[in-house]
Amino acid sequence: MKRALFYIVFLILSNTISAQVVFEPSLKEAFKKAKEQNKIVFIEYYNSDCPVCKRLGDLLKSDSLVGNYYNKNFINYAMNTNGSLAEDDNVFISEANLHFDSVPVLLYFDANKKFLHHSGVNVETEHLINEGKKAKNPDFRTSGLKAKYDKGDRTVKTLYAYCDLLLVTKNEAMVKKVSQELYESFKKEELPTKKSYIVLKQVVTSTENGFFQYWINNLENLKDFETGYKAGTEKSYLEKIVLKELNDNTIKNWDTSKKDKFKDYILKLKITDNPEVYFE
After folding, report:
1. Nearest C-alpha neighbor of 74 from the set 127, 31, 121
2. How far is CA 254 from CA 2, 245, 248, 264, in A?
């Protein structure tokens, strides 16, 4: 009886331990172990004050499927952006030429610190495991998107993912080029849909882009795509693009036609009822 009870307790403790993703105490130790074990390094890039990050953290600590998969296949490290990154972490991210406007992000590097894959987060078991599988497969890593693009892949899926990578690496000129190609490949009958809105929201940065032009001319339909605390914020993404270009130092060199076009955008979006203030 005692032996059986001991065995049950042992199983419970074993499952509890294996359920949690094990994180290394430092980036240096993570890559040291990755080389020794020939594994990929997974980095949880997060902010300890972020509600979504907290839910992700809870899942990484409690989900046995995720814990077992990540402990088996990766060396894991958690990078907290709250306040500021630790010095070594900041140098590492800077040298990798990665820039993130939001958290959490899943990051994967080989043992030699070469970037392999990144992903935003759905706090779901399936999502975390699927992204881990992509990181392990050269055909599905985000780092392989440029090669697909250079070989002529102009599918909507590839172009959208490549735009996201270009934003992360701050290649603004290519973002504009590829996001316009994305518009050209996009089914025009789907322009009024949430799918089109998500593209606008996530990867469009220019007023010249086809998605921007579609939505600025169909503002009456740009609604009901957001819910909860973001409900009613759909037009703010158009506003953000317009204001970014208005803050460009070249505005003083704009011709009358371009200024008039932006005045129209300002009035349509109700940024101000006196658009002249941006050109004084």
Report:
1. 31
2. 84, 11, 11, 15
The C-alpha atoms of residue 210 and residue 241 are separated, in whole angstroms, by 13
Distance CA 108, CA 104 (A): 13
Tokens coding 217: 């001319």
DSSP state of 265: H
**CA-CA distance, 93 to 100, in Å (whole number)?**
10
Which residues in the chain land under pLDDT 50? 1-2, 4-16
Per-residue confidence (pLDDT) for residue 3, from 0 to 100: 52
| Cα(240)–Cα(181) distance, integer angstroms | 21
pLDDT of residue 280: 87
* Neighbouring C-alpha atoms within 13 Å toward the C-beta of 233: 10
Q: pLDDT tens digit string along 246-267?
A: 998 889 899 999 999 999 999 9
- pLDDT of amino acid 181: 98
Of 41, 37, 115, give the one whose Cα is nearest residue 74: 41
What pLDDT, on a 0 to 100 scale, did the predictor assign at position 106? 98
pLDDT of residue 57: 96
Cβ atoms of 61 and 22 within 8 Å: the answer is no
Contact 134, 154 (CB under 8 A): no
Query: Under DSSP, is residue 32 helix (H, G, I), strand (E, B) or coil?
Result: helix
37/6 Cα distance (integer angstroms): 33
At 108, which helix (H) or strand (E)? strand 105-109
pLDDT of residue 248: 86
Helix or strand holding residue 75 (H, E): strand 74-80
The DSSP output letter for 21 is P
Q: Running DSSP on this structure, what letter comes out for residue 209?
A: S
**Distance between CA atoms of residues 41 and 52, nearest Å:** 22
